[in-house]
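Request: When convenient, would you put together a sequence paired with its structure tokens?
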Amino acid sequence: MDTRHDDGSAGDADYGIIGKGYSNYRQPDPHIAEVIRQSLGNAKTVLNVGAGAGSYEPVDRAVTAVEPSASMRAQRPAHLPVAIDAVAETLPFSDQSFDASMATFTVHQWPDLKAGLLEMRRVTRGPVLILTCDPSELTRCWLNDYAPEMIAVEARRYPAISTIAEGLGGHVDSLSVPIPLSCTDGFSEAYYGRPERLLEAGARLANSAWSFVDPSVGDRFVADLRRDLSDGTWDARYGGLRRQPFFEGSLRLIVAKPGDKR
């Protein structure tokens, strides 16, 4: 099934709305990018599925990008290749066309996860990389205390790591990716030690889960967080996070290589 929004977005999130200004808050983080680069190995040709504005696309490889949202394609910087308008479930490439393929922060939005993963495996000779979040670990962040409704939405949307591994097959490793304190990619846990940023409407809008909860949840979140930052309550509870260089949260990089399952 190809569920498209007015701007061409496929999946459960309408990037014609939430994609505006997305790249102001969602820039590839160097630490996370290095983990991806190393996992790509010596692949020379790479497919990026659900490529968005181009985060984490390696500039030292020949990249083919696929992105169904016109809003997101328009935000891709000039030095990156123009993205193809297509969806994960029906990739317009022949079998084993690429040395490696990757998908970052996108599988939770695919209408048919199994079909998308099978397509990535079909067109890829080597490793398939999926950067995602483990839904069972999302409650570890302080955000769960302030906006449990949003975290619950995230947990329902993100597929289990085991489901992704089963869909890809082969030799599968799930790597925990520590989140740096200065993380430039503004997914929910990126601000674990910089709570003030989440008072900005743009920072919340760049995380699609906020678009699935009632606006009153965001209003309450801002009011409660602003109050607790002002009177010191947040720092009394979580202030140590401001000095913690990395946070072991829900971020995972799944690396699936061809072969029999282990």
